[in-house]
Structures are given as C-alpha cells and as structure tokens.
User: Fold 5-dehydro-2-deoxygluconokinase from Paenibacillus arenilitoris.
Amino acid sequence: MNSIRFPEGKTLDFVAVGRLCIDLNANEINRPMEDTVTFTKYVGGSPANICIGMARLGLKIGFVGKVADDQMGRFIVRYLEREGIGTDNVVTDRTGAVTGLAFTEIKSPTDCSILMYRDNAADLLLTAAEVREEVVAGAKLLLISGTALAKSPSREAVFQSLEYARRHGAVIAFDLDYRPYTWASEEETAAYYNLAAEKCDIVIGTREEFDMMERFEANTGHDDRVTAAKWFDYRAQIVIIKHGKDGSIAYAKDGSSHRAKSFKANVVKTFGAGDSYAAGFLYGLMQQWPIARSMEYGSAAAAIVVSSHSCSDAMPTKEQVDEFIRMSNAASPN
Amino acid sequence: MNSIRFPEGKTLDFVAVGRLCIDLNANEINRPMEDTVTFTKYVGGSPANICIGMARLGLKIGFVGKVADDQMGRFIVRYLEREGIGTDNVVTDRTGAVTGLAFTEIKSPTDCSILMYRDNAADLLLTAAEVREEVVAGAKLLLISGTALAKSPSREAVFQSLEYARRHGAVIAFDLDYRPYTWASEEETAAYYNLAAEKCDIVIGTREEFDMMERFEANTGHDDRVTAAKWFDYRAQIVIIKHGKDGSIAYAKDGSSHRAKSFKANVVKTFGAGDSYAAGFLYGLMQQWPIARSMEYGSAAAAIVVSSHSCSDAMPTKEQVDEFIRMSNAASPN
Amino acid sequence: MNSIRFPEGKTLDFVAVGRLCIDLNANEINRPMEDTVTFTKYVGGSPANICIGMARLGLKIGFVGKVADDQMGRFIVRYLEREGIGTDNVVTDRTGAVTGLAFTEIKSPTDCSILMYRDNAADLLLTAAEVREEVVAGAKLLLISGTALAKSPSREAVFQSLEYARRHGAVIAFDLDYRPYTWASEEETAAYYNLAAEKCDIVIGTREEFDMMERFEANTGHDDRVTAAKWFDYRAQIVIIKHGKDGSIAYAKDGSSHRAKSFKANVVKTFGAGDSYAAGFLYGLMQQWPIARSMEYGSAAAAIVVSSHSCSDAMPTKEQVDEFIRMSNAASPN
Amino acid sequence: MNSIRFPEGKTLDFVAVGRLCIDLNANEINRPMEDTVTFTKYVGGSPANICIGMARLGLKIGFVGKVADDQMGRFIVRYLEREGIGTDNVVTDRTGAVTGLAFTEIKSPTDCSILMYRDNAADLLLTAAEVREEVVAGAKLLLISGTALAKSPSREAVFQSLEYARRHGAVIAFDLDYRPYTWASEEETAAYYNLAAEKCDIVIGTREEFDMMERFEANTGHDDRVTAAKWFDYRAQIVIIKHGKDGSIAYAKDGSSHRAKSFKANVVKTFGAGDSYAAGFLYGLMQQWPIARSMEYGSAAAAIVVSSHSCSDAMPTKEQVDEFIRMSNAASPN
Assistant:
C-alpha cells in the first residue's frame, strides 16, 4: 500500500510527454569515442525509455510528443508501435526540424559520457495546441520530463499537459532529467522546474538537480529533508532524491522516508539506470505496492539495464525483473 | 472595509515589476500620425504609470525594472526619482538594448492607436537574479504586469518576484496589460498568464484579455462569473473584468460583485485610463476602503487622465481626485 | 570636364538603393537629450537625404527601398513623392517590421550624437527579387549606401542592384556611410564593403571608414594615396576620402588629386553635412563639371544644411547653392 | 598541356577551405534508413574528401577550417594528420558548436540520399581573422567549396581566403557543392555564389547548380555555353558543367570544349563521385596534363569511389587509378 490514489475508469495506465530521440551507442566499448568506428541506433530520450520500460512490464501506455519528418522520426514511431505504445498523439514536425541524437561513449563502466545533438530538435517543437486533452484525460498517471521544459513551445505544451492532468484527476510524476544543453541559463531552468514541480504528486531527481532548483533558496546544507518538505507544501506526495551510487531516498508526505535496496550488477555502462528505475518504481506504485517495494523493483530493473549495451532495448519484462530479484535474493539472503 | 489584508511592518506600500518605457505623444491631435510632426516625450509603460499614479496619491513606492544605458533610460530614472519612487532595483542594461517606445496617435477621442517599438527593449532583459529579494520583501503590495511576461529573461524575473512576494507575505496584484507585440503566439501568452494568475490575490483585466487566457477552456459564453470563479480556486480574492465604455465589474471571493460608478469626462484620448484606474483602485484597497469605493476612486483618477494629453504626467494627486469627485457629485447628484 | 561618362538615353538621372528612415530631431538644442522634451519628425537615412538633395537641385530621381507598413512608412513615401522622387520601387514590408529611427542630440554645434533604433528595421528587409531591373536600368547613376549592406536580405539586394547597374551601363557611386549598429563584427563589414567597392566607379568615405575596410591589409600609415590606388585596380575612377573639419581629398584614376574649398557656415549641428556634400558633388559630376568645381558645389550645399535644424528638409535648391557661393565669394574673395 | 599556370616556389600544392564533417554510412545497404541499425563513421565534407583524394595521389595538402571541440572534431583532425594533410589552420571552436553530420541512406545504387545535421555546425563558424594569410600564400591552388558560403562568419572567411589567394597568385578552383540546408533562400545563394565565382579560375558544378546561380539572368535555355561564357568575362579559364550520368563538359577560355570519358563501374552508391572526380581532375591539371586527360583521370577516381562503401576512406592512390585506367582500357579498347 502507498498513499497515491490512482483514478478509476481510465483507458490508459500511463502517458508521458516529452523527448523522443535516437541513441547512437558506440559498438566498441571501453575506449574514447575518438577511437570508435561503428554505432548502433536505438530509440532514446528519458520519457521514451520509461514508457518502453513500463510497456514491457505490461502496462497500457500512450505518448505525447513530436518527431522529425525523416527516417529517424519514422523509426521512432514504428518502434513505439511495436512495443504497443499509443502514438495517436505523436505529431510529425513539418518545419524541417531534426531528430535529437545522443552519441554514447563508454570509456569504462564508470566513465561514460554523451555527445548530444539538440539544435533544432523536433521534440522541442511540440505546441500546447497539439497536446490532445482526451489523451491526457484517459491516463491514470502523467509523466513529464524536465528536458521538455527547456524551450518554447515544448515548455508550454508541458504546462498545458499539467493543466489537463489536473482537470481530469491524473496523478502526475515529474522526472527532473536536467540536461544543460538547450537551456539559456540555470536561472531559467530553476524558474520552470519550480513552476512545474508545484503541480506534481511525485518528484524524482538527483541531489544536483534539486540543488539547481534551489538556487534562489536558503537550503545551503543541501538537506534532503528540507528539499522534500518544500514540495509537500504544494501538491507532492512522494519526493525521491537520488545520490548516485550512494542510493536514493524517498520522502512521503506522511513523514515517512524510505531507502531503496540496491542490487549487484555486472555494469557495462551507467546510461539508462535512472529511466529503468523510474519505470520499475512507478509500475510498483501503480500496483499499490508500498514505496520501499516499488523502489526495490525499480532498482532491479536498473540493475538489468546497466548490464546491457542499450537503454530502451534492454528494458526488462515483468518476468525478467521477478526472476532477477529471486536470483539476487537467493545469492545474498539478508 | 475589504477582504484584503495587507501585511504590517513593511517599509514600502507598493512595488511594481516590469516595463519602463517612453511615450512619444503627437502634439497635433485629431489627425492620423502621417500628418503629425512633433512629439512630446513622457515616461510610459503600464506599471510605471501606476507607480507614478500611486506616488502622486501619497504612497511609498519602489520599482523593479531595467532601463537602457542611454539618454532615454537616464531620463526615466530621473523622472521616477523626482516623483519619489525608489529606483534602487532599477538596473541598467549593458548589452546595448534600447528603451521601448510608444508613439501615440489620436485620430479622435475614441480612435486612438499606438505604434510600438519593442525589439531589443531593455525592460525585457531583467533577470531573476537582478530582482532583489529585500526590495520585494519590503512591500505590502506587489504589482506585476503582463508585458513583462512576454520574453525571457524578464518572464523568469516576474516569477521570481512572485516567489519572493509569497515568501514574505505581500499581497500580489496582476494587471494583465496584454500587448500582442513580442509574444510568439497566443498559446504562449495563455500559458504564462495562467501560471502567473494562479499566484495572485487581485487580477485586473479586460474581457478580451481573460478570453485570451481561456483559449484552452470551455467558457464559450465568455461569462464573467465563470472567469472569476476559476481564480478563486487558486489564490485570488478579487477579480476585476473591464468592459471598456460599458464599465467594469469586480468579483470578490466572498461571492459579492461590484460595479464601478463612472464619471463624465472631457475625453482627449483613451490612453492611460486603465493605469490611472488601477492606481486609484489599489490606493483605495490599501486604505481599507470597500471595493465599490475603491473602484469609484479609480474611475475618478481615470476621468482626470483621459482629459489630458499625457498618461504618466497627468496622474492626479489625492487632492485632485477628491476635488474631482466632489465636483462631479455636486454636478450630478444621484 | 571630368572623366566620368554617364550613359545616354536614360529616363532617370539618379537612383539610390538603401535606407529610408525617420529622424527625430530634438527641438531644444545645446543640451543633452535627457533634458529635451519635444522632437520634430523628418525623413532620414543617408541615401534618402542624398536623393532629396539631388531632387531639389533639379534632377530626375528614383528610389529602391522598403518601408514599414505603418504611419512612419507612409509618411516617408508621401514625402518622397512630394519631392518628385519616384517611389515605384519602394516596397512595403508585410512582416511587421518597423521604421528605423534616429533621435538626434545636439549638445553643441560640435558635439552631436545619434540614438539609433535599427532592430527589425524594414529597410534591411528589401530582397534581391524586389529590386526591379528596369528601374536600375533606367538610371544614369546608381548610388549604394553602406548601411544597406549590414544585413541579409538587404545586402543581397544591393549586390543585385550592382549587377543590374553593370549590365545596363550605369555609373555606380558608393557612399560608405558606415554605422556600427546592426553589423555583427568589423570583419563582416570589411568583407562586404570591399566586395561592393570593387564594383563601383566612385567611392566616397571618411578616413575611418576606409581604415575599417583595410583591416586585413598593410596600409598601416593610413595613406590616402595607397587607399585610393587599391580601387583604381578594380573599377574606380574617383575616390574621395573625407577628413572631417580638415576637408576632403579626391583622387582620380588619371593620377590627379583635388582638395575641396570649404565655406564658412553658422553651424547648428554637423548632421547631414556628408549627405548634402554627396548630393552637390554628384550633381556637379553629372553636369560634367571638373572634380574640383563639383567638390566646391558639395561643400556649399553642406554649409547650408549644417546651418539648419534638419537634414532632408534643409537640402537647398540650385538657386540657393548658387546664391550661397556668390555671397561667400563676395565676402571672402581669394 | 593546359592553360592554367600554377605559381612556382610554393610549399604546398593545394589548400582547401571549408567543411569538415562526419559521414555516418549505414552498414546495411539497399534498404531505407528506417530499417538500418548500424552506422560506420568516416571523415566527410566535400573539400575534406577532395583533400584526402589529392593527398592519396601524392600532393602536399593543407586545410583551412574549423572543428568542434568534441570527440568528432578530434577524430577529424587525427584522420587528416594521418593522411599527411596540414592542419595548422584547422581551428577548434570554443562556443559549443557541434560537428556536422551526414547520415547516408543507400536504397539502391541509384537511389541514395543524405540526412544532414547542419544546425550549429562548427565549420560554419570559421572567421575571416582565423584564416592565416601565410597558409593560403603557400599554396599553388586554393579550393573553395560552396557550402562554406552558406552562413556568416564562414562566408566572410571564404572571401578573405579568395583575397589572400589573389594577393599571392594562387590559382583558385570553386567546387559549387550546393546544399540547400542552412541557406536562407535561393536568392541569397545566388548572390554569394556569383560574387565568389567572379574571382575563380576554375568553376565546377552541376547544371542545376549553375541554374540556381542564373536565377536573375536570361539563360532560359540552360545553355552550357552561355553559362561558361559569362565567367570568361571575369577570371575563369575553365568551367565544368556536370550532367549526372550523361557525363560532364569542360569549356576553356580559349573556346575549346572537352567531354570526359566515363568508366564502367560496379556502383554501390553515388556519394563521393563528385569529390573524387574533382580530386583526380585537379591533380591532372597540376601535372600540366591536357584538360581531357585530367577529366579522364577524375572519372577513373570517381569510378573507384562509387564502387566502395565510403567516400573519404575509398579515395584511391595514384597506383590504383593508373591500374584502373589500364584495366579498363584493356577490357574495352576503343
């Protein structure tokens, strides 16, 4: 049991709004990108990855987004459709925008970086008028992702989605997913992250992301509890603050706090850990599991993804997560 | 008595954030601007006008804004200082921006128009970091003006001001003051007007301005009562909807509604009517007068301004407004 | 006699391409603009002033340019038409651009400055396709002005005009008229000024303007003769280098050089001196007068304009210039 | 023998200025890009390919360009250096620009297309001041490429290079290489292509590229001879007009014209044909071969490249071209 009440009588479990892009993962790993020669193409973007993850876990999913009118855009839509994700509200740009790209570089399992192409990206051109109220109205849970706030008109599309979710009673989750590219300044980022977070039931981010949001505030000790408490004054019910390899902590409005169990993994790269964690965690909440169990489920999904070469393509099924947890617990009973 | 409780122990009555610009009023009136030859220079911009109006009525005022590093910018700062308005938080741009201009054309008392110069205007370059918390913290009443939401970084500066006002208990008034120039689209306008209005105690605008804010809503009958009710679900206590020469109506959160008495005036032009009305009305509220009396006071100030050639320069003193009301009531006792 | 051969059988004497804008001259002179209150509106822009000057001297003139779709733009077109200048190729912008403004400040006769409004100026939106070949083809003399090179698409319109002039045998004059506003960098300016000057028969500019064009060259001594010689390797026949109050010097391709006689004037301000000089000088050349006499005629026109409050409006007629020269020579026979 | 006289006493044979980018060639060929999964990374960009081609043929080469400060940029510089191409004047961007990308799609040997990423590309940020005069001064032959004219400041850098080449007596070749991306309009393209072509000794382009340059001219019959004749009025000595699979024709200033022999090839894709042709042709001219033999050498190089998967990497050595010609002539003696 957890305190989040998802609305009844909806046609979809989950709708995400935001970035749809392409990951180009270097096939040759454990070396700098200067020395890699071939790349494999995957669907990417944090909200896309989370949707794919939740679809693999068996939920009914829809996407609100925009793709380029090119081969990359069509590849993305086909992939989502093959995963059973509704693309009715995935709009095609007609202005000549391109698909955002992320070239990944894996120097070592712990030294990974991304080379982003975000100029004139189609996903940032989604307009408020293109968000279809009935799509958001049909969802139990709406996920917004911080990168979609980086520019107009996508920024307004996110706020319009939030308004529709409020109007129709959807639970709202905010995955901060802050990427400095495309933002004009940290001040600008802080402004819109705060305006959006005020309207959300669940806020998930790293300590650094919350610090960025607090740049005009007095939380100089970077105290997680202070960070979480601010949002309980608005609409939040759960705030999760991630501390990288030190794990994450969830605060609930009832005053409780929860730490996630972490799993041993044979790490190939760190990309995708956050997205698979979010997918597993939100899945758990929607099963009405307690927060701690939901976090554990997210951690297990993350452990599976970081052991693989891709993000989206590696998202596990329910059976895979359950089996992983069973095996892990058998190996190290505590 | 009205329902607004202004905080105690503040050093300023009123702080406005937003546009500071120059009006160039044609000296030759009742003809198109193609046939006018000389112009007189005045300080302009809706929040500047309201501040000047309230300063003339005897209140302690401060301004948060940005001016160009040129002769026009220095003229504005000197004028405000001569009126006793605090300019500690009027920042000077260093990027080569210009001062916004408004050339006024008075074809007839009822056919007036404005030719705006708003490209690269200094006032829209105010940043969130340039808003000084202690200035907003020191005010009983903060006024924000819609034009300052038209572009980044001024838009973020407004939201930062709202956050400081909330933090320090200031009453917040929002003068919608919608000008299509500089906005990318009406959708964008609607998004930020709604986000700002949610955080305000008093919202003042024309029917057309509220229609623009409701473009994604179902108020197809343009019903003032529906419009006002929406904001009472957020923080609003008073919503005023102006209907041009048909007068204005104020709704209060307690369910009451109030119509303003209007005064006969020897109209030269319509410019400045809204700003002088706002100055008089807010002044009244701060005296703890009832809403209706405050509205009447605003109407009297407006009647004085529309009888004159300028906006800012014609703002009346308390003695002038009182005398005007006395004379008007003597002339037409009702 | 001079070496320039103007083509026969043309319908117009002179066509200029470039800036059309508004001057707003402070009525209160000998003080900073912070202390001026009223302004008088005139047509402005260097090529516009030169056209008006040459029309007053009795030549047949056409203009190639673009104006804003507003009261200022209509004022400009009407003014040109009243002066008898052909406006068939003055296009009206339909994108919402504004009319460029120049507020003049006269602190003293020798301390004058200009506050420019050039953002989103209509004149810089003239396209190559809007330049009508038959208008340029009909002229004996084409004048281009450096400010029109400052931005695309106006920059391409200038080069297209140069191509039409070359194709139809018009003499081409280039008034450098360099204004730093709107140029991205001095390097960019140098690039296009040089490309344009290569195609011109007459080049007129200040020493500082030629220095800017030579930033990638070795003329470290700022030697006028070196400057002029460069252009004789291209198409130039006359190069005039102006040295402010030290007068100007003209170099001709035949190796001769000429200094202008200067006239005593009761100087009100320095604005407009260059434009009236150019008008008088080009007028003289078109009468087949020797270079020195043409320069003297330009100097006389300039002396008249600097004694007056405006630029365009003060351009003298032939009778006025002749009378001025007669009176000046009578006063100081040399 | 041909009519081009290359200067003596230079340290480099050839310097190119312009685009350096990355090709990402789909490994899975003969299918749409929606169905390709892996890509191989190569150095790309027309002038880069030509330089690599000429370096393989044994010439001394330098490059004037700009790369992004990222893994892609460093990969490009290293590749050039391994090929023996001088990178002293390859500047590294410090503004966060990216490396231009070209994803190639090979649906069939005759149906190939390219998906370009050109927003915020580093190569277009080369400035005139970054072009080192001594590098251009040291070359017998300068090549400019049309894509570098697409935007400021790269456009000005090209004109500055042309000026240095003129000053120091280098022969100048212009590979039109028109790509619609990044140009604001065809009018803008025509303007700068014409200004550049006026200054070149050798102009190489397709019929469609010359048509674009003639949009303000009367060559309605698209007559190659008319096209070529125009440039002989300026500085051109050779003009080559390419007609795709119908071959190409070269016109020389002496009135002669020459058609290239074409070779049978086992075509994998058409990319790179033009670049390898240009490399072989210019190589031939520099050997003082007759135009026809130089064209044949270019055709042979092109036949080798279109039979391979890449462009830059497949550029043949002198031995490979000689052998290819020998084998082809043996197979089909004519």
In short: The domain at 12-327 of chain D is CATH 3.40.1190.20 (UDP-N-acetylmuramoyl-L-alanine:D-glutamate ligase). Chain D has ten helices and 13 strands.
